[in-house]
């Protein structure tokens, strides 16, 4: 079965970030769907949709971090009926979840959506995240009951430094059927 993986980085990330390079080492076929703060994210989403639709793989998966996870959620919505798996790392489900909202560039705020209900994803959360307050998602039954697999890392920070520990779990997500 052929698979295609994509990565959408968070704010200040890139295709040179440590997380992406570790993913690239394990998943050589992964492609970074990169963006800049000054980009029109609506246009980026359309570009990424075209890239995914032109792909002929049997299985598609997007691994996305922080703000990139918000964009991955939006991308999945516009790509339907084409379905792809999502692995969300310390996702920004709601702008109000940021501990310090002043770190988000003003021009980027208009592209973020509030995600109140999400399903069918692997969600990796850092217990020690000082950028996004993700604790409320652990207490929200409706969020958990939507066929999400939520994993809490007790040692990682927002950067999720030990992504390598989760490659097997990511593989399982890629090959699962919801």
Describe this structure in words.
The chain is 31% helix and 17% strand. With 178 residues, it is an alpha/beta fold. A six-stranded parallel β-sheet has the order 2-1-3-4-5-6, with helices on both faces. α4 (106-109) links the parallel β4 (85-89) and β5 (121-126). α2 (41-54) packs across α3.
What's the SSE blueprint?
Blueprint: E1 3-8, H1 18-26, E2 31-32, H2 41-54, E3 59-65, H3 67-79, E4 85-89, H4 106-109, E5 121-126, H5 136-139, H6 141-144, E6 149-153, H7 167-174
Parallel strand pairs: 1-2, 1-3, 3-4, 4-5, 5-6
Helix pairs in contact: 2-3
Any descriptors?
178 residues; alpha/beta; 6 strands; 31% helix; globular
Instruction: Trace the largest sheet across and list its strands.
Output: 2-1-3-4-5-6
Sheet having the most strands: 6 strands, parallel
Portion in helices: 25-40%
Order of helices and strands: EHEHEHEHEHHEH
First CA to last CA: what distance? 17 Å
Summarize the structure.
The protein has 178 residues and is of the alpha/beta class. Helix content is 31%, strand content 17%. It has 7 helices and 6 strands.
């Amino acid at each position: 079965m052929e698979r295609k993986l994509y990565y959408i980085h968070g704010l200040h990330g890139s295709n040179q970030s440590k997380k992406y390079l570790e993913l690239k080492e394990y998943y050589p076929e992964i492609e970074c769907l990169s963006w800049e703060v000054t980009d029109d994210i609506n246009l980026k989403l359309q570009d990424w949709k075209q890239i995914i639709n032109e792909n002929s793989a049997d299985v598609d998966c997007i691994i996305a971090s922080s703000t990139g996870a918000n964009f991955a959620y939006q991308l999945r919505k516009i790509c339907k009926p084409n379905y792809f798996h999502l692995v969300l790392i310390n996702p920004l489900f709601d702008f109000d979840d940021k501990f310090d909202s002043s770190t988000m560039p003003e021009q980027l705020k208009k592209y973020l959506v509030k995600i109140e209900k999400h399903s069918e994803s692997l969600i990796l959360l850092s217990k020690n995240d000082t950028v996004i307050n993700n604790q409320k998602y652990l207490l929200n039954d409706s969020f958990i009951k939507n066929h999400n697999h939520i994993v809490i890392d007790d040692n990682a920070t927002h950067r999720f430094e030990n992504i390598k520990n989760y490659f097997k779990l990511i593989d399982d997500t890629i090959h699962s059927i919801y």
